[in-house]
Amino acid sequence: MSELSVGVPEGETGAALSNESIDMNKKMTTLGAALLAISCFWSSQAFAQTTTTVTTTNGAFTEYVPGSETMVVKSESGSSPLRYSVTKQTTIVDEAGAPVAIDRISPGSPLSIQYTGSGDRLVASRVVVQRAATATTAVTSVPAATGQQTNTTTTTTRPLTHEEKHALKEEREHQKKAAKKEIERREEALEKAKDKLDDDD
Prior knowledge:
This protein is α+β, with helices and mostly antiparallel strands. The protein is 39% helix and 29% strand. Helix 1 runs antiparallel to helix 2 (162-200).
């Protein structure tokens, strides 16, 4: 007998080998399809992560134009106001993470804006409306020689309180948990697709 029939009863060599071949081909096809699906899923995730750049900037709210879904903000770093598109995916919250309606933001309110895009096409993804704690000190001085009066007002902002920092940390944790759930959901869908492929074989 040839080496191929080792461990197979005489007379069943061809049939056993044929069935083993078919089973092995099915298993290899299923494994290949599962690996291809997994690699496509992870490569698309990596591609999506590397092509989107989110930039954060600070500024003062100027106005919201409802018809064009545009928010106008005077940037701290630039002299001209910037226009950000506001979409259904844009999250607008206060420093504690509570939702804020855009029409409730007062002109001059300090904002922290996370956005994508550049030039004239800036799309806001997250807007944090900050509260500026102000300490106002009025100083009046009258120079003796000129007789003119000068008023100086100083406004300072305060650092975040412990509670506000805690609320921001909780918001970040919530976002991480939501992302983890989405990954788990996709993995389950992939597993179901793999099981279906196994069942079809």
